[in-house]
Amino acid sequence: MWRLIKAVLFLIIITGLGLVAYAYIGPLFFPTDFAAPSEEVNYPVTLETN
After folding, report:
1. Most buried one in 3, 18, 22, 41, CB count within 10 A?
2. Are 34 and 26 spatial neighbours (Cβ–Cβ below 8 Å)?
3. pLDDT tens-digit profile of 23-42?
């Protein structure tokens, strides 16, 4: 049972490190996946004043 717990903890740690590495290194290799939408959006707004 202890081996299973150690294996699961190890996988969780490796997965966490992989996600952090992807967050920091990913934009260098996949810039379009991390780019913000670049279209301008205009919506009319009606303000009610008394």
Report:
1. 22
2. yes
3. 898 888 878 777 787 888 89
Q: What's the token pair of residue 22?
A: 């992807």
Count of positions (residues) in the chain: 50
Q: In angstroms, rounded to a whole number, what is the distance separating the alpha carbons of residues 12 and 24?
A: 19
Angle (CA) 13 15 18, round 5°: 110
Tokens 């920091």 identify what position?
A: 24
Place of tokens 């290194």: 25
* Cα 29 → chain centroid: 15
